[in-house]
User: Fold this.
Amino acid sequence: MMWIRHDYDTKNTTWILGFLFALFFMAMAFLQFTAAAVIVFMAAVIGLQKLYFNRVGENLIFQNDRIRKRVLYGGDSSWKLIFQNQGLPIWGGQLKIWFHDAVEPQGQQIASYGNLVELDLPFAIGRNQTIEIDIPVTGKKRGRSRINKMEITIPHPFGEGSVMLEYQPKILHEQLVFPKLRKHPFRYAPSRHKPGQFNLQHSLYDDPFQPIGTRDYVSTDQFNQIHWKASIRMQNYQTKIFSQVANESMLFALNISTLYGTIYNMEERIEELASYIENCYSAGVPYAVAINIRSAGKTPYLYLPAGQGQKQRQQALELLSIISKDSPTLPYRSMLGHLDMHTVLPYTTYLLTDEPEQAIQFIQKWRSQTELTVIGGKKEGEPA
Assistant:
């Protein structure tokens, strides 16, 4: 059953019908046919109303498709609610929804209760009709917003009372608001000692798929590097010149745990990491992300393997969007220990932690394996 019905003040209708029937028999007993006709008419109206409210909403269908929309901080999006009615029409109703305040409606009078926003909208739909209700919203703060609850209230056309339809299944619509992107210092230096895809003037490695020209052959050149077509054209052996490439990849390990839960400046650290991710995306640098939030699966914490491009950026920002202060955390040293045992460190590693002493063992060990940067946060009570 999709909708749970709640009737308010509908018992009065039954009492009124009983009273009218009593009056009808009294009018017939005293041969008051005009009064009896009026009573029958009133009873028919109230009876039809009762029948209507017993059946209304039985074939009202809400299209509960799984929809996830992604919103930049301060960006625009919308809730799209589609209803199909195969039963009795609904007039003068009111739609009420509750959702998390990561997004807020545009130009609407809203009521807020803690982290929930309550929104009331007029609702009417005819028989065999499909309607789409579009609710524009704006990304207010980082996080995930879901429609927690939805109700439709249908008032009595005559008299007092109403019927409220409460949608029972979990609503699968959600909005992900990405973190605010700030400007933070960022540097990366490609490694000349590992092959990769970054063009570098001085590197030990060439990219055989990126020839950039030719030069005269010398005796130390390999035979398979001769450019035969250019040699015939120049009447002299020519050797291919390849683009010199280097490796660069990064790991960001964020610590958001403290002794009693999550750190007080979690939003600032997440926004800082989001800015580093945006810088990597702009520079085309592959990166991985590790956050000490507990996760089910082979990796016991949130981990995004190394990658680059638009898809990697979207997955990384989604990962940051679902973190909340209620998320269960893992000790930072446990996450670093798992990374040390199960991953190969990239050329550059950033440790974002307010408590570097938790990672001192790995800081000393990793300095010889990677270009390590430890970024501490502000202590609680310090000015921003």
Q: What stands out?
A: Confidence is low (pLDDT under 50) at residues 189-207. The longest strand covers residues 143-155. The radius of gyration is 34 Å. DSSP finds seven helices and 22 strands in the chain.
